[in-house]
UniProtKB/TrEMBL annotation:
Domain Aldehyde oxidase/xanthine dehydrogenase a/b hammerhead: 21-126
Pfam hit, one: MoCoBD_1
This protein's name: CO/xanthine dehydrogenase Mo-binding subunit
Organism listed in the record: Blastococcus saxobsidens
GO molecular function, one term: iron ion binding
Length: 720
């Protein structure tokens, strides 16, 4: 790990002055001459055939310039990978809120009035909302035409059942797995469930689209401009080199801004009218139709010897994919983090089957650490339940089975030693073995988060010996991308950071970038910057160097199982046995995160991640009744605020260097992973109530405490 670089100096955010003075221009802040306003009609039923759409009255509203349906634009389908979602529904709707018609008008009020006047006749169809029933032989087929769906790149493999969006199977074969389970003295099986959750960003989705001759220009909230450009080209048939995406400021993301809906509607409205078209979603639209975290059911099975050694593990993970798979970014069309149920441990034989299925709910998408949150909640709860059954201390059971631990006479690896320190520092920080009063208990969770794959590059120019410019096509969704690039460039070249200017350029002028997400930004763009700065330093040091001097550098980060950071979270909770209310008293997050490039941003990511995980653990849920999302505003969708947050202590553990520049590791999707299982484990030790479904609500605890009578409570797990 490098220590002789100026990264310990707190950073000054390069975009900070623009943001705190209100001069930063987000997508909705842009207004173009002649701009029209878009509004869309969403379906009021969850599953139905469209019999008739009458737009006559809407077209008569003063100021309306275009009213479009699928009859006007065709059956145009889009997606991040799977192109299965229509821009406007043609023959049927598959979830409540799906777009059926679009209007462009001189004012937003006129557009919304026109939408209210569109008359749609539906023939309702059977609604499928239970993902467990989706792949049964008699389940209604939601996409009869699914065989014709294509990926943005390449053809789609035919699924085993027409209601399967995607599937990923990894690990040991059937015979190897059966033999491993055969060596176990005990086999434990538990099932866990997690709900839909919204990303909770403050800025809703928005877009502006206009044409300049045959060039389509897009200002967007999408955090992956190059990906959006490619997806729009694949869907619309417009040449990719004739689409230019602009992106600089994004008002929050947390995984939700990689998927776009507005840009496609605006594309067709702008083409129809010849004028710029702007769309800004309402929170009702955003909460009900923009790809929340998948609701998930996970069944885990683990074989264990008498002394507590894990010998086999399998996981069946079922994701409620909702009506379309368009929001998922990988070709397997499942959140890959679902394989991380036991990734912090050494298990000789593991097998994971991840399946995403179609239902008549809003399409499932990505949210901070997609799949990992569900998997680690299940896996770390499962480990504690095994420890309770075996009568082993949960920390000691984890220490016995650490990834990279001693096997067949070998010494533990350096990785195992780091994980052990992470676990012990968290447990010691919460006073794991301390005596506690009734109703109080402690819990711990251990986990790994892999660094993301991706591709990205920068162009670096020396305009003079003391003026450096870095060109990037990356969006900054609030994580500090611009500041990170400047700090790496300055440190590498040995110059003051004030001499580095980072310029964000549209897709037509910058090198390709995979986009913010998957914990890849520092790993990819930071390393590209380091390499470019190294080469630029060499060039400007040559005798007779003529300015400007320019270097272009691209980095491709492959999938790497060893590029993970390990974390442990320990919490103490208090459970009110009269009401079931859970109060987190304090928390300790121990993190192995490599070299820290931006200290304030690093701590902010860990603290913010913890609060994010706290909301997901205790309160956040998008309930669905009859296909309708029951939260229409962020006032209805409970997010944690300052009074909900307990004291949090962060402990850094010096581990192996990461694969980012100067040994940096990713933390963007790190702080939230262990929160839910640590709290669930602490609640079990405090009250005896083992909750296997999120959120961990007071109502659920109260109901369990009262199941056997008002004066009777279940026994607490050992150590409470």
């Amino acid at each position: 790990m490098t220590t002789n670089l100026p990264f310990a100096i707190p950073e000054v955010r390069h975009e900070g002055p623009l943001k705190v003075t209100g001069h930063a221009r987000y997508t909705a802040d842009h207004a173009l001459p002649g701009q029209l306003h878009a509004a869309c009609l969403g379906s009021g039923v969850a599953h139905a055939r469209i019999v008739r759409i009458d737009t006559t009255a809407a077209e008569q509203v003063p100021g309306v310039r275009a009213v479009l349906t699928a009859a006007d634009i065709g059956d145009v389908r889009y997606g991040r990978q799977l192109r299965d979602m229509p821009v406007l529904a043609s023959d049927r709707v598959r979830f409540m809120g799906q777009r059926v018609a679009a209007v462009a008008a001189d004012t937003r009020q006129a557009a919304e009035e026109a939408v209210r006047l569109i008359d749609v006749e539906y023939e309702e169809l059977p609604t499928l909302l239970d993902p467990r029933l989706a792949t049964t032989p008699d389940a209604p087929v939601l996409h009869p035409e699914a065989e014709a769906y294509r990926l943005v790149q390449g053809a789609r493999h035919a699924p085993a059942h027409p209601n399967i969006q995607g599937e990923l199977v990894v690990g040991a074969g059937a015979e190897e797995l059966a033999a491993a389970f055969g060596r176990a003295d005990h086999v434990f099986e538990h099932t866990f469930r997690t709900p839909r959750q919204h990303q909770g960003y403050i800025e809703p989705h928005a877009a502006i689209v206009w044409f300049d001759d045959d060039v389509c220009h897009v200002i967007s909230t999408n955090k992956a401009p190059f990906g959006l450009r490619q997806q729009m080209a694949a869907a619309t048939g417009h040449p990719v080199d004739k689409i230019v995406v602009y992106n600089k400021f994004i008002g929050g993301d947390f995984g939700g801004k990689g998927f776009s809906l507005d840009e496609y509607v605006c594309f067709y409205l702008a083409r129809e009218t010849g004028r710029p078209v702007r769309s800004i979603m309402s929170y009702l639209e955003d909460l009900s139709s923009t790809a929340p975290r998948h609701a998930t059911e996970l069944t885990l099975r683990t074989g264990v010897t008498r002394d507590g050694t894990f010998v086999a593990h399998s996981a069946e993970v079922l994701f409620d994919g909702g009506a379309y798979g368009a929001a998922k970014a990988n070709a397997h069309l499942v959140p890959h983090g679902g394989v991380d149920t036991m990734s912090a441990y050494s298990v000789p034989a593991t097998h994971h089957r991840l399946t995403a299925v179609y239902t008549n709910a809003a399409p499932g998408g990505h949210m901070r650490a997609p799949g990992d949150v569900q998997a680690i909640f299940a896996g770390e709860s499962h480990v504690d339940m095994i420890a309770s059954e075996l009568g082993i201390d949960p920390v000691e059971l984890r220490r016995k089975n650490l990834a990279g631990g001693k096997t067949e006479g070998q010494d533990p690896s350096e990785t195992a030693a780091v994980i052990d320190q992470v676990l012990l520092r968290a447990a010691d920080g919460i006073d794991w073995s301390g005596v506690r009063s009734p109703g109080r208990g402690v819990g711990v969770a251990l986990y790994r988060r892999k660094g993301g794959t991706g591709r990205g590059g920068v162009v670096m120019r020396a305009l003079s010996p003391d003026r450096i410019q870095v060109i990037t096509g990356a969006a900054d969704q609030g994580g500090g991308t611009v500041t990170m690039i400047a700090r790496v460039a300055a440190a590498t070249m040995g110059i003051p950071e004030r001499q580095v200017e980072v310029v964000q350029q549209p897709t037509a002028e910058a090198l390709f970038d995979s986009g913010a997400g998957a914990s890849r930004v520092t790993r990819v763009l930071g390393e590209a910057t380091r390499l470019a700065a190294t080469e630029l330093s060499r060039l400007i040091a040559e005798p007779g160097a003529v300015f400007p001097v320019e270097v272009a550098q691209e980095v491709v980060a492959p999938a790497d199982e060893d590029c993970g950071a390990y974390g442990a979270l320990a919490v103490e909770v208090e459970v009110d046995e009269e009401t079931g209310q859970i109060r987190v008293v304090e928390a300790v997050l121990a993190a192995d995160t490599g070299t820290v490039i931006s200290p304030l941003a690093h701590r902010g990511q860990l603290e913010g991640g913890f609060v994010y995980g706290l909301g997901g653990a205790l309160m956040e849920e998008l309930p669905v009744e009859g296909g309708q999302i029951m939260c229409g505003t962020l006032g209805d969708y409970k997010l944690p605020t300052s009074p909900d947050v307990p004291p949090l202590r962060i402990v850094s553990v010096a581990g192996e260097s990461g694969t980012g520049p100067y040994g940096a590791k990713a933390v963007g999707e790190f702080g939230n992973l262990g929160v839910a299982p640590a709290i669930a484990n602490a609640v079990a030790r405090a009250s005896g109530v083992r909750l296997q479904q999120l959120p961990l609500s007071a109502e659920a605890v109260h109901a369990r405490l009262r199941q056997t009578g008002p004066e009777s409570a279940p026994p607490r797990e050992p150590g409470g």
